[in-house]
Design brief:
single chain; mainly alpha; Leucine-rich Repeat Variant; 70% helix
Length: 292
């Protein structure tokens, strides 16, 4: 065997040894990585990543951002329950009026906020919506919205929605409900739809009975479903207020005047209000509900 052939064999052996060593190390790294992945699963109780607090560093960073970016960042933080986020939204909301637009990222965050399990987050979304459309929160603003709604069919759906938002923010909520109830009897399905959405947004005790009445009486299955959603999860009713609807919903569950689909929505609303599924019959179902 010549010297060159021997040298090539040594080089090949060294290369193979290195490859085996790297492969073994890769197996160790993969095993270590899999261990880390298994450590933090996607099931079980929440695992905090860090304290949910707006830091001083982030406050300074926010001050340098444009109003749109500030609103987006703070609403995202509010959705994730960061202490201080909602307070900063409240502090800045008047200064953002007319300077932010409900579009793009902010609009997506708004839709997420309106489905949050914390009504304070939903309220922050409402405040940002009103600021984005530069809608004031006075009785005179409500008068103008109502007058425009009466006068112009175009945009009526939006105006009815806004009447509900203003009522929720404390602007003549009783008058807002009376106005929305008038439109809830309109011949047009789309108009009734947005009147019902507005009622759900009010979040007042009186709105519960109104939604129950719409749920029972409206001829449109779509409107009845939206009223049920307003009672169960959607809108600005508190858990306590939703529970006050339970006795009437239990009665409607066996109402022969309702079709099968509507009675299914009754059961769904009851289960959503309670937050659990009950499969063991009507007697246990009814016994499980109580209003404190």
């Amino acid at each position: 065997m010549n010297q060159g052939s021997w040298g090539r064999r040594i080089a090949l052996a060294a290369a193979l040894a290195t490859a085996f060593a790297l492969a073994a190390r890769a197996d160790v790294l993969v095993a270590a990585w899999e261990g880390l992945v298994d450590l933090i699963g996607i099931e079980g109780e929440p695992v905090p990543a860090s304290p949910a607090v707006i830091s001083g560093h982030e406050v300074k960073e926010l001050q340098a951002l444009a109003p749109q970016a500030q609103a987006e960042r703070l609403l995202e933080r509010a959705i994730n329950h960061y202490d201080g986020a909602a307070t900063m939204i409240a502090k800045n909301i008047d200064g953002w009026r007319g300077k932010i637009a409900m579009e793009g990222t902010l609009n997506g965050l708004f839709l997420t906020a309106m489905n949050a399990n914390d009504l304070r987050v939903r309220a922050a979304g409402i405040e940002l919506y009103l600021a984005a459309y530069d809608i004031g929160k006075t009785p005179e603003d409500l008068d103008r919205i109502m007058a425009r709604c009466d006068r112009e069919a175009d945009g009526r759906s939006h105006e009815l929605w806004v009447v509900g938002l203003l009522g929720n923010r404390g602007v003549d909520s009783r008058r807002a409900l009376d106005y929305l109830l008038r439109w809830a009897n309109d011949p047009e399905v789309d108009t009734r739809h947005w009147a019902v959405e507005g009622i759900a947004m009010l979040g007042t005790d009186d709105s519960v009975a109104s939604l129950l009445r719409v749920f029972h009486d409206d001829p449109s299955p779509f409107i009845r479903e939206r009223a049920a959603c307003g009672l169960a999860q959607h809108g600005m009713l508190t858990q306590r207020q939703r529970l006050t609807a339970v006795p009437e919903l239990l009665r409607l569950k066996d109402d022969p005047s309702l079709d099968d689909k509507t009675r299914e929505w009754v059961v769904q609303a009851l289960q959503d209000i309670r937050g659990e599924r009950l499969e063991n019959g009507a007697r246990q179902f009814e016994a499980s509900f109580s209003v404190d």
